[in-house]
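ok, trying the design again with the full structure, not the truncated one.
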C-alpha cells in the first residue's frame, strides 16, 4: 500500500475508535452526577415532611444584592461508618431546590420499615458578589435527629419549622 492510502485509512478509522471510549466516559460522568439514595426495599414506609425555614440575619443584611438563598434539604440515614446517605424521594428523581428567603416545601420520602435514627437536614446558600465575581455563603443550616419506628407500607407526616 502506498503511504498516502495508509494515512487516509488511519484517519478515517480514528473517530470510530474514539466513539466507544468517549461514550463510556459520558456514561460514567452521568452516573457520577446521579443522586445516590439508600434502597428502601420492598413495601417501604412513606414519610411526608412539611418544612418551613427562615435563613439567618446574614440574608437580611445582603438584601441589597436582590438575591434569595437556595435551599437544599432531605432525610438522611446515619451509616455505621459515620457518614450519611439520603433516603429517596417518592417518585424518584432529585429533591427540588427552592430559591426563596423563606423555605416552604413538602416532600415524601421512602424509608425501609423498622427502627431508624433519621436526620432531617436543611441548608441555605447565598451567592454574594465580591471583588472576584461572586462567592457562596452559607446562611442557614438546621438539623434534627428523629427516632422513627416504621411499619411496612406505613404513611407518616411530619411538620417542622426552623429559624422562627
Amino acid at each position: 500500500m502506498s503511504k498516502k492510502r495508509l494515512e487516509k485509512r488511519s484517519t478515517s478509522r480514528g473517530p470510530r475508535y474514539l466513539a466507544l471510549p468517549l461514550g463510556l466516559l459520558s456514561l460514567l460522568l452521568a452516573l457520577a452526577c446521579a443522586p445516590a439514595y439508600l434502597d428502601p426495599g420492598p413495601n417501604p414506609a412513606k414519610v411526608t415532611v412539611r418544612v418551613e425555614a427562615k435563613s439567618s440575619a446574614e440574608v437580611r443584611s445582603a438584601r441589597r444584592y436582590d438575591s434569595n438563598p437556595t435551599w437544599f434539604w432531605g432525610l438522611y440515614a446515619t451509616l455505621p461508618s459515620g457518614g450519611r446517605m439520603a433516603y429517596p424521594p417518592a417518585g424518584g428523581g432529585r429533591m427540588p431546590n427552592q430559591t426563596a428567603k423563606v423555605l416552604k416545601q413538602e416532600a415524601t420520602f421512602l424509608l425501609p420499615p423498622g427502627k431508624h435514627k433519621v436526620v432531617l437536614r436543611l441548608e441555605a446558600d447565598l451567592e454574594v458578589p465580591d471583588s472576584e465575581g461572586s462567592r457562596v455563603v452559607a446562611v442557614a443550616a438546621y438539623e434534627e435527629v428523629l427516632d422513627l419506628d416504621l411499619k411496612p407500607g406505613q404513611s407518616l407526616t411530619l411538620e417542622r419549622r426552623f429559624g422562627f
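Keeping the full-length input from now on. The helical segments are 3-33, 57-61.
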